[in-house]
Structure formats: structure tokens, C-alpha cells
Amino acid sequence: MYKIKKTKEADENLLELEETKHFHKRLKAVRKTLGLLETNPRHPSLRTHKYETLSKREYEVFEAYAENNTPGAYRVFWRYGPGAKEITILAITPHP
Asked: What SS3 state is found at 15?
């Protein structure tokens, strides 16, 4: 089990979803994704993969799917750490 931490940006992204009434379905999908990341970041439904363009020398950035086959589908960007058994959510954004 991993402890989930969020950056300020990720907190703001989540708050925006919570405050937008017509995003209820998307919010539910994002919350499910966060729950799966907490228990198993390699869960097949997350389709987790390294996101090369954001990965730095200090750490690797991963992308997990909250939605799929949906216009503007939401993605969760995250990394392992900073501590052991911790995952930091960097951003929760729609796919361009």
C-alpha cells in the first residue's frame, strides 16, 4: 500500500473537478484512479506508463489513465517518492 501525496497543482486540479457539477463522472473516475494507485500503481486498468517528456534525472514521471476513449479524457501524472512507499500526484489534467 502506498501513501498518496499531492502537489499544490494536483490539489487545485482535484478541487476544480469537485466544484464543477457536470464533471461528476470524471471526478468519480479520477478518485477511482487515485485509489488504484494507492493499492497497485501497476494495475492493468490504469495503463500506467513512463511519460518521457516530463521525466527528469531526479525522478521518473508516470501517466495513469482515469478515462479512456473519451474526448478530453483525464490523466493522472505521478511519481514515486519522495519517501519509501509514497506516490506524489503531480497533476490531474485532461488529455490534449
From this structure: helix
